[in-house]
């Protein structure tokens, strides 16, 4: 309902005063918040992405992503990769060797099949998932490679400068998996409630937005079957403020 309820006085039969309270008519709502705070949403894959700055080796990075119900990122199409490259990730420059370049672990591994005259091998998806995942082109081999390792791990290198970033310039590195690096996690979009908690499939919740009196069901990362409560204005209070996160909770501003 409206914060300031309009009261209109009309004369009914017999001279009685009839009060009409105007309320807002319910409107369809489109929710844009489908990722927890700190994650970037991409509609094309219905996924959320986050760069973790704490330098970890490849195997520790895998576990960190799994703890947030995700995995090291793989890509299904050029558009998804371009979305990643175009993001401003709010990163500290000290986590990178060069200020103009940034490297992240991603979910591919390079399997070496021949070390005779030159390194030969092929890319694989580190953790089997969608068959639609594309594989990177031939890599640049990292400086910390070991002659004993037959499996190297993928780093995606992008550039800090906005012009280079928006042109999609990038490189793929095959690096020693025990080197420490920032990494990129990917997870499915999710339901996020008004207090930034992640909501499981099938549960009721209040979506992030401007209406704390909305209750929806989480289905495939989307709020569905939403119902709203209308709040009565606080009695004996002319000026008041609604709590933005609690339904039907008001603060009276009268002297």
From TrEMBL:
Domain of life of the source: Eukaryota
UniProt xrefs under Pfam families: Lectin_C
InterPro entries hit by this protein: C-type_lectin-like, C-type_lectin-like/link_sf, CTDL_fold, DGCR2-like_CTLD, IDD, VWF_dom
CDD domains (alphabetical): CLECT_DGCR2_like (cd03599)
Domain C-type lectin: 44-186
Listed GO CC annotations: membrane
Xref: SMART domains: CLECT, VWC
Name of the protein: IDD protein
Gene of this entry: Dgcr2
């Amino acid at each position: 309902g409206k914060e300031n309820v309009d009261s209109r006085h009309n004369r009914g039969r017999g001279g009685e005063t009839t009060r009409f309270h105007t309320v807002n008519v319910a409107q369809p709502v489109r929710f844009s918040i489908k990722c927890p705070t700190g994650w970037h949403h991409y509609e094309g894959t219905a996924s959320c992405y986050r760069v973790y700055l704490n330098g970890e080796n490849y195997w520790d990075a895998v576990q960190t992503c799994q703890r947030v119900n995700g995995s090291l990122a793989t890509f299904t199409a050029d558009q998804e990769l371009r979305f990643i490259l175009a993001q401003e990730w709010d990163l500290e420059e000290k986590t990178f060797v060069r200020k103009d370049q940034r490297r992240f672990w991603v979910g591919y591994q390079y399997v070496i099949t021949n070390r005779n005259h030159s390194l030969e091998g092929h890319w694989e998806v580190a953790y089997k998932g969608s068959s639609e995942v594309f594989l990177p082109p031939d890599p640049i081999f990292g400086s910390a490679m070991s002659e004993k390792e037959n499996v190297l791990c993928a780093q995606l290198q992008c550039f800090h400068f906005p012009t280079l970033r928006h042109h999609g310039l990038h490189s793929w590195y095959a690096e020693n998996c025990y080197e420490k690096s920032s990494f990129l996690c990917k997870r499915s979009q999710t339901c996020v409630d008004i207090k930034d908690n992640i909501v499981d499939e099938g549960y009721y919740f209040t979506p992030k937005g401007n209406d704390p009196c909305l209750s929806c069901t989480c289905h495939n990362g989307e709020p569905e079957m939403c119902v709203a409560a209308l709040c009565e204005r606080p009695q004996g209070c002319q000026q008041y403020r609604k709590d933005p996160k609690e339904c039907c909770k008001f603060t009276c501003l009268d002297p």
